[in-house]
Design brief:
By secondary structure, the chain is mainly alpha-helical. It is elongated, with a radius of gyration of 42 Å.
């Protein structure tokens, strides 16, 4: 209820209080509906903009920011620097992974040897209790021990088999990891080609005269189709744009 409606109610100009309350409820409902409609419109607009984003474009790239690409030649954006970092970090992480895999493989081999000792013991027990059960068929303890040792022997053999399979899988992982070294070599080959091209281009554009000793270029030559010449300020502004 607004201040004007409250004043009118106090002065007696409004008699139907229920009707006034209905109007207030209706106004609030209308305002709420308008807010919901506005929120839905904003959500639809955001969803459409998200659909328009090209996943193949680099992060932060758009038609409005296209003039900023490629990025400035800083240490973070230099291609060879980044590739060198990739090969270095990749080699370090691969070495760490190989060390972990080797430790796991060594632990499995040690446990396999210990399990084999257990199997030898259980095999001897089975032979012993088999002989005792045959000589003393009425003694149930010998039969029970024979059964327990046979079951333990089967479980131990299963453990040995699982360890051997795990060792084979670890060797397969190490073989797959060899591809990482191949990928590193490919990246290094790309780096070498890029460096060779860079040196070639520098040599190709190399001059006999130092830039400081060169005569300044003429801004206007007779026979030009226009007389518009760039001022020093225009040239500096153009170089600043290339630098950005």
């Amino acid at each position: 209820m607004t201040q004007e409606e409250l004043d009118a109610l106090m002065s007696g100009d409004i008699d139907d209080i229920d009707g006034l309350e209905d109007e207030v409820v209706e106004e609030e409902s209308t305002a709420s509906s308008e807010q919901e409609a506005a929120a839905l419109e904003i959500a639809d607009s955001v969803a459409k903009k998200e659909q328009e984003i090209d996943p193949d474009e680099p992060a932060g790239y758009s038609e409005d920011t296209a003039h900023h690409w490629p990025l400035p030649a800083t240490d973070e954006n230099k291609m060879v620097h980044q590739l060198d970092d990739v090969t270095k970090e990749s080699e370090e992480k691969a070495s760490e992974i190989f060390d972990i895999i080797e430790n796991i493989s060594n632990n499995l081999m040690e446990k396999e040897e210990e399990a084999q000792t257990t199997i030898d013991t259980l095999t001897a027990n089975v032979e012993l209790f088999t002989t005792l059960s045959q000589k003393f068929p009425d003694v149930e303890a010998f039969k029970t021990s024979l059964t327990q040792n046979e079951e333990a022997l089967v479980a131990a053999n299963t453990i040995i088999e699982t360890m051997q399979n795990s060792g084979d899988e670890i060797m397969s992982v190490m073989d797959i990891m060899q591809y990482q070294d191949i990928h590193r070599q490919k990246i290094e080959r790309v780096i070498n080609v890029m460096r060779a091209l860079s040196k070639y281009m520098n040599t190709l554009f190399e001059g006999r005269i130092d830039d400081e000793k060169r005569v300044s270029s003429a801004q206007h030559i007779a026979g030009d189709t226009h007389n518009d010449v760039a001022s020093d300020d225009d040239i500096e502004a153009l170089l600043a744009q290339f630098g950005n």
